[in-house]
Amino acid sequence: MVRSKKKTGLGGWLFLALVLAAYGVTAAIDAEAASQALHFFAKVMGNVVPALVIVFFLLLAADLLLQPKWIRRNLGKEAGIRAWLLAAVGGVFASGPVYAWYALVLFLYLIAFSIVNGVLMAKLEDSTAL
After folding, report:
1. Rounded to whole angstroms, what are the CA distances from 52 to 38, 59, 105?
2. If we measure between CA atoms, which residue out of 118, 124, 112 comes closest to residue 57?
3. Which chain regions cross the lipid bilayer (predicted)?
4. Is the pLDDT at 121 greater than 70, yes or no?
5. CA gap 127, 92 in Å, rounded
6. What are the pLDDT digits (tens) for 7-58?
């Protein structure tokens, strides 16, 4: 049995150090530009993180709910036309670049949040009317 050697490179840490150094140099030269860059980064992260959390939970749910036996039965060699139909439907939903899904998931998150918030606000308004 051949053991695979785990990659222990420092490339990721080096990149992080270079980015932090670039922010430091920018802050030393022009504090306003560094402040704007950090505010922009925080705004982008505020938009992306909720979508990533939803994607994470969807992947977790798929991992917990879809058993290998079900996948073999419905997508294996014996599945026939059912496998082709599932693959076609999946391809229609997943066509295009992956990053385009982040906007869709964020949109769904905002819709769900507004519905939940609206329901909560309606309940609060009803309870304060008493």
Report:
1. 20, 10, 8
2. 112
3. 37-62, 83-100, 106-124
4. no
5. 45
6. 677 888 999 999 999 989 999 999 998 899 889 989 999 988 888 888 888 8
Question: Cα separations (Å) of 126 from 121, 122, 129?
Answer: 9, 6, 5
Tokens of 19: 């980015």
30 in the Ramachandran plot: left (φ > 0), alpha (ψ -120 to 50) or beta?
Answer: beta
Contacts 24+ apart (CB under 8 A), 38-47: 47/106
| pLDDT tens profile 92-101 | 767 666 676 6
- Kindly report the pTM of this predicted structure: 0.47
DSSP characters for 94-108? T-S-THHHHHHHHHH
Judge contact between 34 and 26, C-beta under 8 A.
yes
Can you tell me the distance from the alpha carbon of 71 to that of 77, in angstroms, rounded to the nearest whole number?
11
Asked if 54 and 109 count as a contact pair (C-beta separation under 8 A), the reply is yes
Domain range summary for the chain, segments of one domain joined by +: 11-65+96-128
Q: Which helix (H) or strand (E) covers residue 65, if one does?
A: helix 31-65
